[in-house]
Design a protein that fits this description.
Elements: E1 2-7, H1 12-22, E2 28-35, H2 39-49, E3 53-56, H3 59-72, E4 77-80, H4 81-89, E5 96-99, H5 107-115, E6 119-122, H6 125-141, E7 145-148, H7 151-159, H8 168-171, E8 173-180, H9 198-201, H10 211-219, H11 221-233, E9 241-245, E10 251-257, E11 262-266, H12 272-280, H13 294-297, H14 311-322, H15 326-342, H16 350-361, H17 370-392
Parallel strand pairs: 1-2, 1-5, 2-3, 3-4, 5-6, 6-7, 8-9
Antiparallel strand pairs: 8-10, 10-11
Helix pairs in contact: 2-3, 4-5, 5-6, 6-11, 6-15, 10-15, 11-14, 14-15, 14-16, 15-16, 15-17, 16-17
């Protein structure tokens, strides 16, 4: 029986994780659930899964949850704040930690789970984008296991040789082909992009996801973050990663070898597949996913991404190539810009403009410690907010 903490249990990945786990009560026991403010959903989850701990980052929500659980789940201990997250990410009887908090807020507990030598199921790509080498070193030094949950990286993991820590050349790998759906604005006329609303941006053609990653998919910053994520996870550089737009989202990514073989992983666009893979690895378990019907799909298309339409792709590549804290700066500026866009205080096409301005003006440093990374993250957020208010003036 494996003990599990789900960080971000009320989100899209969190809910899918609990769905897979409830199909395998003989294998997995939920030890802790966490959320930011959604005390109604976590209350239901607590009643169903009876964890030892439930963490609400927001103090008032924690108090409300405690009241609500008094009768129906009195054995659940309710904790609050970031301290609560760190505690449940490192509990002795927790074997696996699902890192499914969105954004930089997930960095500290995810890093602590790695420090504690857990199996880290990594959905929270922003944590790795921010901390890169520090995170990978922490995993290695503490003999943690890192399993990518992002569907593309999970696909690549499945197509790579078993031990890929020695660099591509020795393994006969030529490149990674990272697939992207192209999001909801793949064919929208360029002159209409600036008027796109949060609702339009969040209406993804293939995947149902949280609002932040949905906007990231619309700008393709999501794919940019994934290029960075892939560099760290698979010990490679941006030049070995090619982004391929594949609107059907059936091939989740591919690995090309020097003998001409190209290995791909296919499946219906349903996050329960990579989640089940990460939980059971190296075995396989039922994920509750509908079987792939190739005759139903009939056709698979591939197109080159257009960098004029999707400038965020270029910005992410450039940040990774610049190195140091540049990726953390990119991520921070993006988080602020997306939030402002979601609150209708920034136009869709200005998201990339803000990020570019922040990258040009905030000095990056060697990412030697968590403090340096968090300092540059803060400087980038401040600069992004000033840039956005200048745009509005
Ligand atoms: P979501 O918005 O649906 O859920 C986010 C979760 O994080 C919620 O449980 C929320 O309570 C929690 N949270 C939000 N802010 C927090 C804070 N400040 N402190 C603590 N907890 C906080 O997001 P999602 O779509 O489930 O995505 C989660 C992560 O997984 C993201 O990093 C995303 O990029 C990644 N991911 C998601 C998908 C997907 O299909 N949804 C696919 C690949 C990767
Ligand atoms: Mg992805």
């Amino acid at each position: 029986m494996k003990g599990i903490t789900v960080l971000g249990s009320t989100g899209s990945i969190g809910v899918n994780t609990l769905d897979v786990i409830s199909r395998h009560a003989d294998k997995y026991k939920i030890k802790a659930l966490t959320a930011n403010t959604n005390d109604d959903l976590i209350r239901e989850q607590c009643i169903k899964h009876q964890p030892e701990f439930a963490v609400m980052v927001d103090e008032d929500s924690a108090l409300r949850l405690e009241q609500k659980l008094k009768d129906q789940a009195p054995d659940v201990t309710v904790l609050s704040g970031v301290d609560g997250l760190l505690r449940v990410a490192t509990l002795v009887d927790v074997d696996y930690v699902m890192a499914a908090i969105v954004g930089a807020a997930g960095l500290l507990p995810t890093l602590d789970a790695a420090k504690a030598g857990k199996r880290v199921l990594l959905a929270n790509k922003e944590a790795l984008v921010m901390s890169g080498k520090l995170f990978m070193d922490t995993v290695q030094e503490n003999k943690a296991e890192l399993l990518p949950i992002d569907s593309e990286h999970n696909a690549i993991f499945q197509c790579m040789p078993v031990d890929f820590s020695h660099g591509f050349e020795e393994l006969g790998v030529k490149k990674i082909l990272l697939t992207a759906s192209g999001g909801p604005f793949r064919t929208t006329p360029l002159e209409q992009l600036s008027a796109m609303t949060p609702e339009q941006a969040c209406a993804h053609p293939n995947w149902e996801m949280g609002r932040k990653i949905s906007v990231d998919s619309a700008t393709m910053m999501n794919k940019g973050l994934e290029v960075i994520e892939a560099c760290w996870l698979f010990h490679t550089q941006t030049e070995f990663i090619q982004v391929v737009i594949h609107p059907q989202s059936v091939i989740h990514s591919l690995v090309e070898y020097n003998d001409g073989s190209v290995l791909a992983q296919l499946g219906n666009p349903d996050m329960r597949t990579p989640i089940a893979y990460g939980l059971a690895w190296p075995e396989r378990i039922d994920a509750g996913v509908e079987r792939l019907d190739l005759f139903d799909i009939a056709q698979l298309d591939f197109v080159k991404p257009d960098e004029q339409r999707f400038p965020c792709l270029r910005l992410a590549r450039e940040a990774m190539e610049q190195g140091g804290t540049s990726s953390a700066i990119l991520n921070a500026a993006n988080e602020i810009a997306v939030n402002e866009f979601l609150h209708k205080r920034l136009r869709f096409t200005d998201i990339a403009r803000v990020i570019e301005t922040v990258l040009e003006n905030v000095t990056h440093n060697a990412a030697t410690s968590l403090d340096v990374i968090l300092n540059d993250d803060k400087a980038a957020r401040d600069y992004a907010l000033v840039t956005i208010s200048d745009l509005a003036a």
